[in-house]
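Our preliminary data section would be incomplete without showing what the modeling component actually yields. Below, a chain of 299 amino acids is followed by its predicted structure, encoded as tokens that our downstream tools consume directly.
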Amino acid sequence: MHPVPLETFPAVLSGAIESSGLSLEQLQRKLADEGVRVSLSTLSYWRRGRTRPERPESLRAVEAIEEVLNLPHGYLTGLLGPRKPRGRWVARGGIVHPHDELWDNTSGLSSVLLELGEADPGEVTYLQIHDQHHLDHQGRDFRTRVRMLLRSEVDGLGSLVVLHRAEDTDRALPTLSSAVGCAIGRVRDIPSCRFTAGEILLDRQLNTGQTAVIEFEVHWFGATRSVRYVRTSRRPVRDYLVEVNFHPSRLPAQCFAFTQTGADAREIRAETLDVGRYGGVHTSIQGAGLPIVGIRWTW
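Predicted structure:
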């Protein structure tokens, strides 16, 4: 007696796509014709079971897929089971925070992340992140050099999505450039919440346990003197180092490192930082599990 294979969402979706004779690109175009935008990587992840649709936009996309593939209404969505609880959840490596807990405004963000195929937080571990932030001679945000050591927790990880947010007073949204060990893929501006979302293409696909080192630059367009630099992370970073480099002609009066547990939480002062003779300060944190870490200064 042969066991009857269980119907699962990825198995049924994959079988329906094969039966239709459509490629993923053709399926994506048909969905776009219906006003539904889903990235190829997201469709591939769903088909292979690497991620599952849960957000409202994703569930609407699944309903559209049912129509395109001539499946009974509710057939695919019925295979998904109950949604995971909203809010923080635990993945390998610690608690994962939802975007709307970490930012005060995420209007328009979810649809862009869906388009770019944001990796599930459980798919990648950030072993080390080093931010080197520079201000110009007027004390305005100028550029940030970002270096990351990451490890894939799945087979076939080929890209990441990074977010950088402008201040209310900035002249323009930040831009990305100068990648090392990777390439800058699609970039989307989200003026409604002042984010730039960028796709980082790794130089090779990573299998489970493999690591990669990448570097890229963020260019800022500050219009007024800056007062802080902050990194916000959905999940803990094993080893985080941030440097802030001031122009010699515009040094701050005082600097201190701080952490926060969320966008609305008060800043917790971690340590006072002495500005070095060349205008630099830094702080590092290892495995603390705090989603927001930064340096603040006064002029």
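The longest strand covers residues 124-135. Residues 95-298 form a domain with the Immunoglobulin-like fold (CATH 2.60.40). Preliminary results of this kind motivate Aim 1 of the renewal.
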